[in-house]
Design brief:
Number of helices: 10
Strand content: 35-45%
Helix content: 10-25%
Number of strands: 52
Shape: globular
Radius of gyration: 32 Å
Length: 816
């Protein structure tokens, strides 16, 4: 998605309950009226109202004040200072990301994101830190997601007062509305009870190419009981559109329809909603769309949409499973009318080989194609409940299933098994096959995303401790990790970890770990030991569509209510030229990509024993994966020989890069930076700006970093960390990721150089003599250097040989 700032609209606001004991001076009454609006325009002023009360900000506190609401207008009562209730939604600067598209301001007091993902309510008298607040466009409440210690929500109660609760279930559906400052008097809308309303929309029929847009023109008509129909110019409402039958030939953008370039017809329902007399009013109508394609293009705006899920296993069978999938797909289709691919990570039989896999798989396939047609690129992975031969009964089979727009390498359960049925050699062969596939992608410079769907995950859990599940995951992990570090864009999806919620500590039914997060991977063959690995690829569950966990409240009384996310969901990947947007959906709409991990009674003691820490990070939908990268090389050097190793930094994308700003961090000091392109370098903070003065594309080789090695540091890996601040691709801001490099010190020393200073002299003889009388200890390198005749023993013979070499240097040889 190419954009300078394409973020979801989030309007943030904090309400602090009560007057805090401060007295307010009465102000003069405000003049003018304020009209209801359904959307926000940055820079304009609004009153925020619920049940006759407006949000007021005065002297560092937030409270409510009574106003007069009549129809779609609001008038301030006597004694209310207009400036205290007028709020401005202002677009944020370029440094603001996930939640920061809008500020809300009132005078000198404002809500602003200043560090990390937190917001601060900055007032004249105080600074309150409450986490991230959002204004919900559905008009229900101002809500806060949880911070480290508590969660609370604000809403208007029955009396119209703003109150605070700590449970989302107790927040009623009380409308929160915005009224725009317009001045003067607005005409009252007709009273709906005295007549009828209707809506008409012009039918659309045209020849289209992909991306063509047609305005959806609707007319609202009001007919009094005893009067002539009249066109209503503005009720202050909004229209929503939905395809109710026919082909899905495009998508709605506000009051326009964007065609995907394919021929087809559709019947569309339009629903117009406005507010009168304090209540919501809705009228509906239908119109038809007929499109004749001038150029077939199944991908609207060049986007490629791939849907993923796992575990078609409702307890009540295929019909119940189809109902769950349908409920999720209905929500997906609202935002993604067309799809190109479908990937399912296995298990079509809930009851362990008792149902016909082919029948269940066809039920799933029919459900998906009922929403998105039969021309999907579909991949069906074998699961552990699917007791059929690989590649039969509609299963796709292992190995490559690439499409024109993305790569796919399937890992069936037979090739990477769960639990007691693990065959190490089979898994090693799977890793070898995967390596061959990925090596070819590296060789050709493949920049499209690569999906690796597997029924069984790679993570270490208490199930690994119980039955060995995942104890050979490292064979597969290391192959993926190595390929990702060479620039491949890999997304690993699993589905298997559903039984009793073994991945609750990671996020339950919603697990998503981006590049840079940590994944626990078992030491090869071990059931009890694991290594926390830093991910160089995206790791996630595809989403469970049948069940997540078999709850057993009698034996696990706190399991069901432990707070674990057990929502059935599916994932949507939208592939653009520069990035992949990732979203998770449930039957109500977008869902967390990753929820907070929890310990449950069933697993807590064992997880504590194994040292498994909770993955508390939460990732909401959507998240973005960059497809283009700035890559730092990894080089191996001998510090005794090379005191100034060089690390090349390159751009590996196919799209034209014109500007990149980044920071460089390293454990070794930077001595110099040389660039084949124009650049600026701030040595104080490690910031690099690479650009072309004439605006043309930057060469793939950006610059070279030269490091200074002082003394002889120990062998090891010294990271070279790159952090992208901003990148411009094709003259637009676009996601560009960073692949870190490293300097690996692998020092070799001459025989006899036990001081490891690069020279052989009397100091080495003294050091060995001290070692022989146990006055000093040697490390592995020193022992190797001291064993001059390679007989695996350090003794007086080595001491004599080194002494002779100092007098008459010769090849090491054993004494006669």
């Amino acid at each position: 998605m190419k954009a300078k700032r394409l973020l979801a609209l989030v309007l943030a606001f904090i309400m602090v309950f009560g007057f805090c004991g401060m007295a307010f001076a009465e102000e003069a009454a405000a003049s003018g009226e304020y009209k209801y609006v359904s959307s926000v325009t940055p820079g304009k002023e609004y009153i925020i109202v619920s049940n006759g009360h407006a949000v007021q900000k005065k002297d560092g506190a937030v409270t409510d004040v009574a106003v007069t609401v009549s129809g779609d207008t609001v008038t301030l009562n006597s004694g209310t200072d207009a400036s205290s209730v007028l709020w401005t939604f202002t677009e944020a600067g370029s440094d603001y990301t996930t939640y920061g598209q809008y500020f809300v301001k009132n005078g000198d007091d404002y809500l602003a994101r200043t560090t990390g993902t937190e917001y601060y309510l900055v007032t004249r008298t105080d600074q309150h830190r409450y986490g991230a607040w959002s204004y919900y466009n559905n008009g229900t409440a101002f809500r806060q997601y949880s911070n480290a210690s508590y969660t609370f929500y604000t809403y208007a109660d029955a009396s119209g007062k703003f109150v605070v609760v700590n449970s989302p279930s107790s927040v009623p559906e009380t409308p929160v509305k915005l009224y725009e400052k317009v001045g003067g008097t607005n005409p009252e809308p007709p009273v709906p009870e005295t007549g009828t309303y209707s809506i008409t929309v012009e039918d659309i029929s045209k020849t289209v190419a992909s991306g063509d847009t047609a305005a959806l023109t609707y007319t609202v008509t009001y007919t009094p009981v005893d009067g002539t129909a009249q066109t209503v110019t503005d009720l202050g409402g909004t229209a929503a559109y939905e395809i109710v039958s026919g082909n899905a030939i495009g998508r709605f953008v506000n009051d326009s329809f964007v065609f995907n370039g394919t021929a087809g017809t559709a019947t569309v329902k339009v629903s117009y909603t406005w507010t009168a007399d304090g209540a919501a009013k809705t009228i509906t109508g239908t119109f038809s769309i007929t499109a004749e394609a001038s150029e077939i293009n199944p991908n609207p705006s060049g986007e490629v949409v791939v849907i993923a899920g796992s575990d078609f296993q409702a307890v009540d069978g295929d019909e119940a499973s189809s109902a769950i999938v349908s409920g999720i797909l209905e929500q997906i289709k609202k935002d993604h009318p067309t799809a190109n691919g479908f990937i399912f990570c296995g298990d079509y039989d809930k009851h362990l080989f008792t149902r016909n896999v082919e029948v269940s798989l066809n039920a799933l396939k029919s459900t998906v194609e009922g929403f998105f047609g039969e021309k999907l690129d579909e991949v069906y992975v074998q699961g552990n409940h699917d007791n059929v031969k690989q590649g039969t009964s509609g299963l796709s089979g292992p190995g490559a299933h690439d499409t024109e727009n993305y790569g796919v390498f399937v890992i069936d359960e037979d090739d990477y098994q769960w639990g007691y049925f693990i065959r190490e050699n089979r898994i090693k062969q799977t890793a070898a096959n995967l390596k061959e596939y990925l090596d070819e992608k590296v060789e050709e410079g493949y920049k499209k995303p690569i999906f690796i769907p597997s029924h069984v995950g790679l993570q270490f859990t208490t199930r690994t401790r119980n039955d060995g599940d995942g104890r050979y995951a490292r064979y597969i992990y290391e192959v993926i990790d190595a390929a990702a570090k060479k620039g491949l864009n890999i997304i690993f999806m699993y589905g298997h970890d559903h039984s009793q919620g073994f991945d609750n500590y990671m996020g339950g039914a919603a697990v998503y770990l981006p590049v840079g997060d940590t994944l626990n991977v078992a030491k090869t063959g071990s059931r009890t030991e694991y290594i926390p690995e830093t991910l160089s690829f995206t790791y996630m569950n595809a989403g469970f569509t049948g069940y997540y966990a078999d709850w057993e409240p009698e034996t696990d009384p706190d399991l069901e209510n432990s707070g674990v996310d057990k929502t059935t969901s599916m994932t949507v990947f939208t592939i653009n030229g520069n990035s992949v947007t990732v979203e998770r959906y449930n039957a109500e709409g977008r869902h967390n990509l990753k929820s907070a991990g929890v310990h449950t009674l069933k697993h807590a003691a064992r997880e504590e024993e194994l040292g498994l820490q909770l993955f508390t990070q939460v990732y909401t939908s959507p998240q973005t994966i960059a497809l283009n990268h700035v890559v730092a090389d990894t080089v191996t050097v001998d510090a005794a020989v090379n005191k100034n190793p060089e690390v090349a930094v390159k751009y590996d994308g196919n799209d034209e890069l014109t500007t990149v700003r980044l920071y460089i961090k390293s454990a070794l000091p930077i001595a110099n930076i040389e660039s084949v392109n124009d650049f600026e370098y701030n040595s104080a903070d490690g910031r690099i700006i690479v650009y072309k003065a004439d605006g043309t594309a930057i060469d793939n080789n950006l610059f070279t970093i030269k490091y200074q090695i002082e003394g002889l540091p120990s062998d090891g890996v010294y990271p070279v960390d790159l952090t992208i601040i901003q990148a411009t691709v094709d003259e637009q801001f676009a996601p560009v990721g960073a692949i870190d490099g490293a300097i690996i010190l692998d020092n070799t020393y001459a025989k006899g150089d036990v001081t490891l200073d690069g020279e052989i002299n009397n100091a080495d003889l003294i050091m060995i003599a001290r070692y022989l009388v146990q006055l000093v200890e040697f490390n592995a390198k020193q022992k190797e250097a001291a064993d001059y005749n390679d007989d695996e023993v350090i003794d007086n013979v080595d001491l004599v040989l080194i002494a002779r070499a100092l007098v008459a240097p010769a090849e090491p040889a054993a004494l006669a």
